[in-house]
Write a structure and sequence with these properties.
This protein has 404 residues and is α+β, with helices and mostly antiparallel strands. It has three domains: 21-160; 172-239, Immunoglobulin-like, CATH 2.60.40; 243-404, paralog of FGE (formylglycine-generating enzyme). The chain has four helices and 16 strands. The strands form five sheets. It has a five-stranded mixed β-sheet, with no helix packed on it. A four-stranded mixed β-sheet has the order 14-13-12-15.
Length: 404
């Protein structure tokens, strides 16, 4: 009995070993199959990319061949017109010889002068008709040659212009509390503009504006009249559900709390003339009367830098076209639509210096102004600040905005 139990136990162990080996072999085969599938997928992707590249090359070659065929056709037409004109001129010369012969016949005796006059008038009418026809053909030929020259000039432009245009999306990246309409602007006259939502795989025409109400990335580019394209650029949007700050003010996180910062320089209205020639004391009093306070330097800089801590409200590199930093006077609030911080504040770089409620660490009796003015160029960053001699001073280049 013991021997039989040992035999059964040994058989069961052998069976388990066989099952274990079989399962191991199955796992190895499944792993190899997955590796093969991955390799095949990679190869398919490479083949697809190569096919797309080859298709683009074929399209470019076809376009170039069409242009060359058009130029050859125009040249052939010009040559044909030139040959026709030469034949017309030869006919005109033969006609002139006939007229001279008619004139000599007029001097012969015993010739009916009336008949001769009729013949001469007919010949002159024919000559005039031929001359008018030649003039018309010459005008047609000139128009054809002008058209051909224009084609050649356009072709030379295509060959010489290799600089892509600059694209700019409106409104700029940032947080918004209601649906927006995306448009792409180009710095050249004749441009095609495109946007692609989420990635660069589905471009669509952006010249007429696209309704948008989604948190995520939007990619955009521009193409000029000779086919130069800008690189895809990314703009990130955050479509928030509600605004707790009310009209023309938006929430900004500052040191663990939320501060409502006015969207525009006082009087905080779009397209209004911002108030300057105001002292720090008066600015603080105006904000207090509206149930707010004059922004501190920390609140002001947090609103300007946005969630990514940019040097300028629009990014880390100075761009003269974005904000009013290189002119002779302040502009109406919000006119520079690209001069918007992530949180929704306009004109924080340039336009007017802005009073704050913070004093200088080196001079505690003097208050800081921030952001630069209309003529400070790249010295108008979010960290740019200076101090006034006295809080009661007024300046034509200093305004303010309120916080709450």
């Amino acid at each position: 009995m013991k021997k039989e139990n040992k035999t059964n136990k040994s058989a069961e162990q052998n069976k388990n070993k066989k099952n274990g080996k079989r399962n191991l072999i199955i796992l190895i085969l499944m792993f190899l199959l997955l590796v093969c599938l991955f390799i095949v997928q990679c190869q398919l992707n490479k083949v697809k990319e190569a096919a797309l590249a080859e298709q683009k090359l074929q399209e470019l070659a076809l376009r170039q061949q069409q242009i060359l065929d058009s130029l050859r056709a125009e040249q052939a037409k010009a040559d044909s017109l030139k040959a026709l004109e030469e034949a017309r001129i030869a006919d005109s010369l033969r006609l002139a010889d006939s007229l001279r012969l008619a004139d000599s016949l007029a001097n012969l005796p015993k010739v009916n002068t009336d008949s001769l006059k009729n013949v001469r008038d007919s010949l002159r009418a024919v000559r005039k008709a031929r001359r008018d026809s030649l003039d018309s053909l010459a005008r047609i030929e000139k128009a054809k040659l002008d058209s051909l020259n224009k084609l050649r000039f356009a072709d030379s432009l295509r060959n010489s212009d290799k600089v892509p245009p600059t694209a700019e999306i409106t409104p700029p990246a940032g947080r918004y509390y209601s649906p927006i309409k995306l448009k792409v602007k180009c710095d050249e006259i004749k441009c095609k503009t495109f946007v692609s939502i989420g990635d660069t795989l589905n471009p669509q025409d952006a010249s007429k504006g696209i309704e948008y109400n989604k948190t995520g990335s939007v990619f955009f580019l521009a193409e000029d009249s000779v086919g130069n394209r800008s690189a895809w650029e990314e703009a990130k949007y955050d479509m928030a559900s509600d605004n707790v700050c009310g009209k023309n003010a938006f929430p900004v996180p500052v040191g663990g709390k939320t501060v409502c910062v006015d969207a525009y320089e006082y009087p905080n209205q779009p397209d209004a003339t911002p108030k300057d020639m105001v002292s720090q004391e008066e600015a603080a009093r105006i904000c207090k009367n509206e149930g707010k306070h004059l922004c501190s330097i920390e609140e002001w800089q947090a609103a300007c830098r946005g969630k990514d801590g940019f040097k300028y409200s629009y990014g880390n590199g100075y761009k003269q076209s974005k904000c009013n930093t290189n002119t002779k006077s302040a502009k109406r609030s919000g006119r520079k639509t690209q001069c918007r911080s992530w949180w929704g504040m306009y004109d924080m770089n340039g336009n007017l210096w802005e009073w704050t409620s913070s004093t200088s660490k080196q001079h505690p009796d003097k208050f800081l102004v921030a952001g630069g003015a209309w003529n400070t160029n790249n010295e108008s960053s979010c960290s740019e600040s200076k101090f006034s001699f006295y809080p009661q001073n007024q300046y034509p280049s200093v305004g303010f905005r309120c916080c709450k």
